[in-house]
UniProtKB/TrEMBL annotation:
Together with LptD, is involved in the assembly of lipopolysaccharide (LPS) at the surface of the outer membrane. Required for the proper assembly of LptD. Binds LPS and may serve as the LPS recognition site at the outer membrane. The gene is lptE. GO terms for biological process: Gram-negative-bacterium-type cell outer membrane assembly; lipopolysaccharide transport. One of its GO terms (cellular component) is transporter complex. Component of the lipopolysaccharide transport and assembly complex. Interacts with LptD. This is LPS-assembly lipoprotein LptE. It holds the Pfam family LptE. The keyword Transcription does not apply. It is a lipid-anchor. It comes from the Bacteria. It is found in: Cell outer membrane. Keywords: Cell outer membrane, Lipoprotein, Membrane, Palmitate, Signal.
Amino acid sequence: MAPKAFIVVVALLLAACGYHLRGAVDLPDSLKKVYLNGASMQLREQFRKVLRGVSGELTTSPEAAGVVINVANEISDQRVLSLSARGRSNELELYYRLQYTLVKADGVVVLEGLPVEIKREYFNNQQDIVAKDNEQQVIRNEMLQQAVRIMLDRIRLSLATDKK
């Protein structure tokens, strides 16, 4: 079999089995334009990236949106899990929490006060402080991405059951 034919066959098999890229989201039309109220800039940026990837848009006004997501009690913090003999932190737990309410364009509240909580632990090597600061930022970004995916999955499910 020629290499090009092999690639075509593999691509068709992957498409037939439902394979899709990690993070790929199929949004309903009502969720293509979203207004995010009360969220941090970091959460807004993650929402913008996800929506841009599926031809969606984070609007600047609630009137232009199909749904409004009201974010409340957004907290991003850390706590020490273990200390070294010198009293420095060896292990840290990062956590991110928020509550959100989903309101459709017609003002109907679909989801109210749903919590999202994500925790991550990581080893804090005191010998490489600069790299650990970068690692912590990468972990926090991944936590925000996961929070966005959780919220969008719940919202898609609630909008799908709301239509039935």
